[in-house]
Amino acid sequence: MALLVRMKDIPSIGHVWLLRNSDVPNMIVIMSDVWSEVFSCALDRSLERGASVFRRDDRVLNAYYVREGTVILVRALADGGALTLHHAQPGSLLADASLFAERYHCDAICNAPTRIAVLPRAVAIKALESSGLALVALSKSAQEVQALRARLEVMRLKTLRARLDAFLDLHGVPEAGGWIGVADWLGVTPAALYRDLARRRRRNLA
Questions:
Q1: 23: part of which helix (H) or strand (E)?
Q2: Per DSSP, which regions of 57-106 are E strands?
Q3: For 9-42, how does the pLDDT look when each residue is reduced to its tens digit (9 = 90+)?
């Protein structure tokens, strides 16, 4: 099956690109290799779990590359909750779309002891332009935008049952041990999700 990436969702881009699903992992590996080389001489920072890399409304001055650990991008909600937007793993650029923004629109929090490399934003942008892989980076960002929009639509559903139905329709049943990640994706506690799953099993719906 092919993945349709509509670049009209990205400002100033009006083309439609057709990418095979099999191309996506290769694209991610390519970008990881490119950024690893770009940040090869960058200064590293070591951060503990719970430390922030940046906060919402901070000015975008630097680019960050995750060498070790995990950084989550989180946006606070009006009801006091939080929406996890992305998990940045080793080998990825943190909040790559923010390279072209003036300020951050979310918080970046270390989810584990983490080591990141830091470069001035202008240096990272210049490297991206000269690498000839700007389109690959844009395609990857477009996929992330699509995934985020799908998640936001699911989050608008009022009940956990409806959200879980939508998740299963989009992604299917997770692998063993994956339900905790599903709870985070749905914006509920693992306990609440397990109660719903138990009800489903009793009703023979799961």
A1: helix 23-38
A2: 62-68, 71-76, 82-88, 93-94
A3: 333 222 333 333 344 444 444 455 677 878 888 9
